[in-house]
UniProtKB/TrEMBL annotation, chains A, B:
Location of the Cyclic nucleotide-binding domain: 18-139
UniProt cross-references to Pfam families, sorted A to Z: cNMP_binding (PF00027)
Any GO molecular function: DNA-binding transcription factor activity
Natural source organism: Geothermobacter ehrlichii
GO cellular component: cytosol
Protein name per its UniProtKB record: Cyclic nucleotide-binding protein
Top-level taxon: Bacteria
């Protein structure tokens, strides 16, 4: 991809960002803080244990969250996330290792917010940062509720 | 409990609040936004399906999070939360029904932040609100990671 095309692609990607908890104006402003990333089919974004640096908002494609099992080389898909969702929120907040392995089977387009950029956002635009955090907390809280339901289904 | 005692008890409870993600100064400021609640041994704080209005920070005692199973009247404890933790974060963000039933076996002391108060906090003190949201998101994200590990352990 040539530079000019890459720039156009990234601008378009930013325009396609959707985030259920923000108004269109807030989403557009958030998008200007994000970096673009294209993921090839089959590509692993990060592995459990990798040092992490930010959250990825999914604009197109799907992302699989894989958790290792007690069998070597066998993992289960614990979540399948699509456009409007995000992955890696833990790393937005704290230097840490990745909990899970994350990959895309069919490829995906992502917008990435690094911890460093987020800290700047929280400093410069705290009200937008609060809204973003609210939306993310709501989403992760809902995922936790679903995980509890699935756990209870084993009993 | 007489009114004067109740006031003293609540003041002391606020001083005992601890929240790992905030500085002592931020914790003290947050505490001033919270209402006190005492939970009797065996008391159910809320049931799955109740309309909800806020998050409860646990100052003393333990809180059980119960998820119904497919057997009538049989639930499993999916989380056990103690001092420094919180429960009900979903309701801070959105008018909703409670996902889970929450109770205390031995009794507990809580500090409660209602959605209405939180909205005021986000308006008046957005930087403190961001820090609070960050801490809560980190905690819920870690709980989700643990739930995924437990799910993977079934395979």
């Amino acid at each position: 991809m040539e530079m000019a095309d890459a720039g156009n692609w990234c601008e378009k990607l930013r325009e396609e960002l959707s985030f259920h908890f923000l108004t269109p104006e807030e989403t557009a402003e958030l998008a200007s803080w994000l970096d673009c990333r294209s993921v090839a089919p089959g590509e692993v974004l990060w592995r459990q244990g990798d040092v992490c640096a930010g959250v990825a908002f999914i604009v197109s494609g799907q992302i699989e969250v894989r958790q290792p099992t007690s069998f070597p080389d066998k993992s289960v898909i614990v979540a399948l996330l699509g456009p409007g969702s995000f992955v890696g929120e833990f790393c937005l907040l704290q230097e840490s290792e990745r909990f899970v392995t994350v990959a895309s089977r069919e490829g995906a387009e992502l917008l990435v917010l690094s911890r460093r950029r987020f800290e700047q956002l929280a400093q410069d635009r705290p009200r937008l940062a609060v809204r973003l955090m609210q939306g993310m907390l709501l989403t992760v809280s809902r995922r936790l509720g679903q995980a509890y339901e699935r756990l209870a289904a084993f009993f």
